[in-house]
Design brief:
The chain is α/β, with parallel strands linked by helices and about 525 residues long. Strands 3-4-2-5-6-1-7 form a seven-stranded parallel beta sheet, sandwiched between helices. A six-stranded parallel beta sheet has the order 8-13-12-9-11-10, sandwiched between helices. A two-stranded antiparallel ribbon has the order 14-17. The relative contact order is 0.09. Bound molecules: adenosine-5'-diphosphate and zinc ion. Zinc ion (ZN) binds next to helix 17 and helix 18. It catalyses: Couples ATP hydrolysis with the unwinding of duplex DNA by translocating in the 3'-5' direction. InterPro entries: DEAD/DEAH_box_helicase_dom, DNA_helicase_ATP-dep_RecQ, DNA_helicase_ATP-dep_RecQ_bac, Helicase_ATP-bd, Helicase_C-like, HRDC-like_sf, HRDC_dom, HRDC_dom_sf. Belongs to the helicase family. RecQ subfamily.
Length: about 525
């Protein structure tokens, strides 16, 4: 351990270990397998880089991020550490040179892409060398229970058998209990020492708003912000549309998704990192391994599929420790659709796990209590008390007697024969003079115009709450038509009251306006 402290200060120039680093390094030096769960920016790299320098032989680092390998190796070289990488970007001449260097013991660390590592010739080469340790970065990629599962990562499970005496390290920033166990199992870690750092990111403020006219909401939000941001959408089409809408508002932004040419994606990424583009509108294809410290906000235009992916995506904000915002646009009907979609998957066991994960993120979105607490609890980091840095803590939901509103909505659903979606329902409630309403003679219904006093967004929110309360359900087999449930009857018969939360309709974060 003495040597480790020396390397920390002499090679890397740091005076102290961060939380967990010393414990992890100690275990690796004692030849024990280790699983490291630390949030992004927590300092995972030193957990294997320092042992690599202390131990006598060569250390292998498996990383899926080909685009970052060169940067990491360059950074190590700058510290005076001899390291190299092996991936598909090398030409055969470079490859030969690296292989020769490995043979001659010239390197302390080799970064390698999993697909390259698992080729027979590479494994054979390694078997003739003195291997000190194998580190698997982004280890959640071995787990089926995540979104990032990679086929090549699955093969890594064979490494343990091939190098039974070499300590193996799995490192990840995403780890709920299920994924955690899965990583250890898939990598065949032998009674691993598990270190789990705190996943709290106190400088990120969590905000949720009921999704309604989402493009307008995002425009409004973005105009309240300064600095860089990422907006995640769940389809390429939405990315393109939203990027266009923002650009029309004079926002300096770009769309990013897997449908773009590789070199264009690289260019956009570079422009974003170097502050030439303020905002990236992207699918989840964007961001893995992006090292940009001054991202000030992350918006989710659509509901993610799990708390893990949500946490990972919002974790790209505020790495510099300065205040940052996370905004989730939440729509109950999106949730119903995603739920249906997950349930229709072929693998029943897997659907089950995905549904559980989805239920957790849904609960986060619908929460009426501190959102940070929900998030941390999910990562088995139990915290009491209120964070004072989420929308719920800062502006607690106010309950009101929503019986009358509920009756208006439910009776209107009934009058419309349970055959319409929420927007048309709102149009009737608010008594809009629309051609379709007159054609169907719905202006003659007793419920026409009874909700005139409130806005579309207000009713949208109330409908969401009624779905959430189980008084209404969305029939997605039928164009998301709203149906009454059994629970709605006593409310309609006026034998039961309904407590609702006062709808939160605008996003006002009290921030300075973006100057455009
Ligand atoms: P992760 O891989 O967990 O996202 P990194 O290993 O990239 O995080 O570390 C994040 C940043 O913290 C890097 O800039 C790194 O140099 C710095 N860092 C890591 N350990 C220490 C330490 N003990 N003291 C000071 N800075 C550190
Ligand atoms: Zn809170």
């Amino acid at each position: 351990m003495e040597q480790a402290v020396q390397v920390l200060s002499q090679t890397f120039g740091y005076s102290e270990f961060r939380a967990g680093q010393a414990e992890v390094i100690e275990q690796v030096l004692a030849h024990r397998d280790v699983l490291v769960l630390m949030p992004t920016g927590g300092g995972k790299s030193l957990c294997y880089q320092i042992p690599a320098l202390v131990l006598p032989g060569l250390s292998i680092v498996v990383s899926p991020l080909i685009s970052l390998m060169k940067d990491q190796v360059d950074a190590l070289n700058a510290y005076g550490v001899s390291a190299a990488y092996v991936n598909s970007n090398l030409n055969s001449e470079q490859l030969v040179s690296v292989f020769r260097g490995m043979q001659e013991g010239r390197y302390k660390l080799i970064y390698v892409a999993p697909e390259r590592l698992m080729k027979m010739d590479f494994i054979e080469r390694l078997q003739h060398l003195d291997i000190s340790l194998i580190a698997v970065d982004e280890a959640h990629c071995v787990s089926h229970w995540g979104h990032d599962f990679r086929k090549d990562y699955r093969l890594l499970g064979q490494l343990k058998a091939q190098f039974p005496h070499v300590p193996m390290l799995g490192l990840t920033a995403t780890a709920d209990l299920a994924t955690r166990a899965d990583i250890a199992q898939q990598l065949n870690l032998q009674q691993p020492f598990v270190f789990k750092g705190s996943f709290d990111r106190p400088n990120i403020r969590y905000n949720q708003i009921t999704k309604y006219k989402a493009t307008d909401q995002v425009i409004q939000f973005v105009k309240q912000q300064d600095g860089s941001g990422i907006i995640y959408c769940n389809s390429r089409k939405k990315v393109d549309e939203l990027a266009l809408a923002l650009a029309r508002q004079g926002v300096n932004c770009a769309g990013y998704h897997a449908g773009l040419e590789g070199n264009i994606r690289d260019l956009i990424q570079r422009d974003f990192i170097q502050d030439r583009i303020d905002i990236i509108v992207a699918t989840v294809a964007f961001g893995m391994g992006i090292d940009k410290s001054n991202v000030r906000f992350v918006v989710h235009f659509d509901l993610p599929r799990s708390i893990e992916s949500y946490y990972q995506e919002i974790g790209r904000a505020g790495r510099d420790g300065m205040p940052a915002e996370a905004l989730l646009l939440y729509d109950e009907k999106d949730a119903v659709r995603i739920r249906q979609w997950i349930a229709s998957g072929e693998n029943v066991e897997r659907n089950e796990v995905e549904l559980q994960k989805f239920t957790a993120i849904e609960a986060f979105g619908e929460a009426q209590t501190c959102r940070r607490q929900i998030l941390l609890n999910y990562f088995a980091e139990y915290s009491a008390g209120q964070c004072q840095n989420c929308d719920i803590c800062l502006d607690p939901p106010k309950a009101f007697d929503g019986t009358l509103d509920a009756q208006k909505v439910l009776s209107c659903v009934l009058r419309l024969q349970q055959q319409v979606g929420s927007q048309y329902l709102i149009d009737v409630l608010r008594g809009k003079q629309l051609k379709r309403i007159f054609e169907l003679q719905h202006e003659q219904l007793s419920t026409f115009g009874i909700g005139k006093a409130q806005s579309d967004a207000y009713w949208h929110n109330i409908i969401n709450q009624l779905i959430h309360r189980g008084l209404l359900r969305v029939d997605i087999t039928q164009h998301a038509v709203l149906k009454l449930t059994e629970e709605a009857r006593p409310v309609l018969r006026q034998t039961q009251t309904v407590q609702l939360a006062v709808p939160r309709l605008t996003i006002d974060l009290g921030k300075k306006k973006r100057v455009s």
